[in-house]
Amino acid sequence: MMSTHEVENQVPAREGVDEYTSNAPLVEAVARWGRGGGEASAQELVDVGELVGSAPFQRDAERANTHPPVLHAFDRWGRRIDEVEYDDAYHRVIGAAVAAGAHTSAAAAPGPGANVDRAAAFMLFAQVEPGHACPVSMTHAAVPTLELAASALRDEWMPRLLSRDYEPGLGGGGVIKRSALVGMAMTEKQGGSDVRANTTRAERRSGSGSWGAEYGLTGHKWFCSAPMSDAFLVLAQAQHGLSCFFVPRVLPDGSRNDIRIQRLKDKLGNRSNASSEIELDDTTGWLIGDEGRGVATIVQMVTRTRLDCVIGSAAGMRQAVAEAAWHVRHRRAFGALLIDQPAMAAVVADLALESEAATLTSMRLARSYDDDADGAEQAFRRLATAVSKYWVCKRGAGHAAEALECLGGNGYTEAFPLARRYREQPLLAIWEGSGNVIALDVLRVLSREPEAFEAFFAEVGEAAGESPVFDAALGSARSLVRELSATDAASAALLARELTERLALVLQGSLVLRYSPGAVADAFVRTRLGDEGGRQYGVLPRGADVTGILARA
């Protein structure tokens, strides 16, 4: 007999689910584009899926966010230590991600499909706990920039980045770490995304050691995420202009570098990850690349973190669909399970369409970053990364809100994970370039790198003839490109967002037409590229195979 407090219509917790094999679009993408037809990492990804779907891991993910980092600027004697204390749950989460190679496995064992396998692991961890993904992503993205450093610096630090060990302390004082995480510090309070307005100065010191030219950096950084990283890539003004520097927390002699953490940001979401404001006072850094070429030097790091923003947004969409689908399959209202009620079934199916397209986009992008990418593939990723970052990341917040609503009032409480996801998704649309920055970057590619558009349309055009709706959208996108190529800069800027959105949608439409089941492809193209969708989720074309879409989700 139930007590007066028990509820018969109770939804069980979504725990013990293999988050990899239950995600058909991801499994298929890894089989298509991963190493060895997906076989090289199949068991490892199954292991990751079981881990992140387990009750202990999900409890750690929750605890890492309910027990956020704490700044200790001084020790008990008043001496500066500038350390951030994280809950042990956070260390377990990020330690598992590093052990699985979610950071740098593609660089440690490069080859066709390596970035797809790494992206899949990253997605699985970010699906359950997104905050730790910030330092994991930055470490992944730092590899190509570190390749440009002086050989002694590179040879000492690169093995640490590629290590699958995780050591949370900073080391120093005779302790030499085997592994390292690397962050970045670019923006300042007066400039934000306009990094060329930076005022942090870099004064060259006399002589050069084995790590290359040494500088003293003085200034501030308004956003420095993951301040307990072992080193940072920092932009500062040197004699010949904005330059990129490698700034470790611990110097070669074991002493602490002078990086002063002023405070931690009180953020909307991303609570498990510390983001800080820092001051630099003759802080030691080593030049990477040439003076005055800071943006060009760090751009590969920025590009790869944009890729991870797309993957992270897709991960959030998958979590949202999984939680919503689980709830409606178990929750009964008005005499039937929610999944058996047509209006709710249409909403969850529409959410699943968005999630599948985002997953396909992120995995196809990841494949373009492998070391076998030819010139056309590199040109494709230059444009495709920007348009995908704009569109997929912007779709994340609305997607999370609709999924949250599927859970009703429960979804709005912190007891369920979608409230945390709803606060997380806007970050990925802002980080590494908010909407206008990305859209204007697309225009910059149009004016400077027309070959990127040629490669992009060659890829997208592979689906030509599969759908009249798609063909019309593709033709419209090509026409808009021609129009903007012939117009003045101010007029083009007014249409930058429209262009970026259209390019993103024809890319997604092409991918689902080629790689998704017919029910998914038909409904996606007709709603996103045609005129049979609505302004909100849950408006599907007449005759859409809702049952088939839901079965796949």
Short structural description:
With 553 residues, this protein is α+β, with helices and mostly antiparallel strands. The chain has 19 helices and eleven strands.
Stretches where pLDDT is under 50 for at least 5 consecutive residues are: 1-7
Q: Helices and strands, in N-to-C order? A: HHHEEHHHHHEEEEEEEHEEHHHHHHHHHH
Oligomer description: single chain
Q: Summarize the biggest pleated sheet.
A: 7 strands, mixed
Helix vs. strand class: alpha+beta
Percent of residues in helical segments?
A: 40-55%
Give a count of the beta strands, DSSP E runs of length 2 or more: 11
User: Radius of gyration in whole Å, from Cα?
Assistant: 24 Å
Structure annotation, total helices: 19
Fraction in beta strands: 5-15%
- Cα end-to-end separation: 35 Å
Categorize the overall geometry: globular
Rounded mean pLDDT is: 95
Account of the protein in words:
This protein has helices at 24-33, 42-52, 55-66, 88-99, 105-108, 114-128, 133-146, 151-162, 294-330, 342-367, 375-406, 417-430, 435-448, 450-460, 468-485, 489-494, 496-515, 518-529, 546-552; strands at residues 70-74, 80-85, 182-185, 201-209, 212-225, 231-238, 241-248, 259-264, 275-288, 332-333, 336-337. The strands form three sheets. Strands 3, 4, 5, 6, 7, 8 and 9 form a seven-stranded mixed sheet that branches. A two-stranded antiparallel ribbon has the order 1-2. Strands 10-11 form a two-stranded antiparallel sheet. A hairpin with a 2-residue loop joins strand 10 (332-333) and strand 11 (336-337). It has 19 helices and eleven strands. Helix 2 packs parallel to helix 6 and helix 7 packs antiparallel against helix 9. It is an alpha+beta fold. It is globular, with a radius of gyration of 24 Å.
